[in-house]
Design a protein that fits this description.
alpha/beta; binds S-adenosylmethionine; 19 helices
Length: 453
């Protein structure tokens, strides 16, 4: 059947037409991530503010995001399947042909969209794109074969391996060995649950939201619909924060009444924890826009902190602090479950550059600490350069600093989250709650440091 026959005014064609805006948005988003290296969530929040995604009904927006996330999470498998049917490879200078095929195949193989809808919409998208237009029949032919044979080809592949770009795979194998690299990559294929840090009454909220209470008192839910629609959002009863992301602030111990510096603070999940624990917090971030988000988040939660827009590598306040949390910018390779665009945005060079920035941030942070103060350094990265190696280098160049080992009591008895000599090191495959969709946590590193008196 060719495209003309498919687009007659049949119920199937009308149904397919209805889903067009979401598919077009998915193709635009994929193009921005893959070609322009723009983070998915940044584009989504920007385009919500400027209009083009905002004009889509919430259901279409959610569908577009689901298509993009699946396309990126399963990109290796999908490329393999498409490769079977593109005998001469992906044509050059073909406009949006690749994101159209990628998102079309993601819908057919993984989202189980009815083939007539996924294929018809992909053909229409190709016809709208000046350069992809001449490939409309190719789109039709390839996606028909994907619909018939794609599942079987995908099932024959080692999904965790093929969906992990070589540069990341090789790093993880070198650092953690092949078996653990495989576990990390397998966990990254699963849509993560939603964790909420609650101000109080976890048991009562968990009942209202049919969730589960985690070892640290956070609530875990299977995400459905808009976060703002969940009970307690308007009251400021909780905020979204993966269990692993909540651990660094917890490692600061009792901060009540202390003057605490939160360096690289926005959007403020850890600032909120410190403020809730009774600290007097100064939150510093280089981005004024992100600090505005932090202030809005704290206002919703009825919590307070002083904010400073400054470069934390050079910022010099008049007074030193009792305790400092440095949650440094990093490659974020521990959060790929949540951000499946990361493997396609970051490179080994970014890790090197970020490691240099972290070194400068750490040096300045140490200089701002009182003589008996505590410093917690954290990153949501699985990379050695942004964790263990960073701390080893700090200790070598700064004899004033020593490691204050984190114990299993500091992490709710979860000794498997720790590595010698007392660092926090969590992995996406940890926190097994019985089924894959309820399990997992972000990959985080944290070290607690003290100044030698
Ligand atoms: C990992 S995020 C922080 C997340 C935050 N701690 C939380 O829990 O919500 C890193 C932050 O570092 C900020 N940043 C990057 N370079 C910085 C610098 N030189 N000085 C201060 N902040 C910086 C970024 O704007 C970003 O908000």
């Amino acid at each position: 059947m060719d495209f003309e026959e498919e687009t007659r005014d049949t119920p199937a064609a009308r149904e397919a037409q209805a889903g067009l805006p979401a598919r077009r948005a998915a193709v635009e988003l994929l193009t921005a991530v893959i070609d322009k290296k723009q983070p998915l969530d940044d584009i989504l929040s920007r385009s919500l503010a400027t209009g083009w995604m905002f004009d889509l009904p919430a259901r279409d927006r959610a569908l577009a995001r689901a298509i993009v996330a699946t396309s990126l999470r399963r990109r290796g498998e999908i490329d393999h399947v498409l490769g079977h049917f593109l005998e001469r490879g992906m044509p050059d200078k073909a406009g949006k042909l690749y994101p159209i095929l990628l998102s079309g195949a993601a819908q057919l193989i993984f989202l189980k969209t009815p083939p007539h809808a996924a294929i018809d919409l992909a053909v229409r998208l190709a016809q709208w794109d000046g350069r992809a237009r001449r490939y409309d029949k190719l789109v039709n032919a390839v996606l028909r074969r994907v619909a018939k044979e794609g599942d079987a080809i995908a099932a024959s592949l080692d999904a965790p391996r093929v969906n992990t770009p070589d540069w990341l795979w090789q790093r993880w194998v070198a650092r953690y060995g092949e078996a653990r690299a495989h576990l990390i990559a397998a966990a990254n294929l699963i849509e993560p649950p939603l964790d909420l840090t609650v101000k109080s009454d976890a048991e009562s909220w968990v009942e209202q939201m049919s969730g589960r209470v985690l070892p640290n008192g956070s609530i875990r839910l299977l995400p459905k619909g808009r976060i703002e629609a969940l009970p307690g959002y308007d009251q400021g009863a909780w905020w979204v924060q993966d269990i692993a992301a909540s651990l660094p602030a917890h490692l600061m111990g009792d901060v009540e009444g202390k003057r605490v510096l939160d360096l690289c603070a926005a959007p403020g999940g850890k600032t909120a924890q410190l403020a809730l624990a009774g600290a007097s917090v100064v939150a510093v971030d280089i981005s004024k826009t992100r600090l505005k988000t932090l202030s809005a988040n704290l206002a919703r939660l009825s919590l307070a902190a002083a904010t400073v827009a400054a470069d934390a590598t050079t910022w010099r306040p008049e007074e030193r602090f009792d305790a400092i949390l440095l949650d440094a910018p990093c490659s974020s390779t521990g959060t790929i479950r949540r951000h499946p665009d990361i493997p396609y945005l970051k490179s080994p060079k970014d890790i090197e550059d970020l490691a240099h920035l972290q070194t400068r941030l750490l040096d300045n942070a140490c200089s701002l600490l009182k003589s008996d103060g505590a410093l917690v350094y954290s990153t949501c990265s699985l990379e050695l350069e942004e964790g263990e190696a960073q701390i080893a280098a700090l200790l070598a160049r700064n004899p004033d600093v020593k490691v204050d080992p984190i114990s299993s009591d500091d992490v709710f008895g979860q000794g498997d989250w720790l590595q010698p000599p007392g660092f926090l090191r969590t992995f996406p495959y940890q926190l097994d709650l019985g089924t894959p969709e309820w399990s997992g946590m972000d990959g985080f590193f944290a070290a607690r440091l003290k100044r030698n008196k």
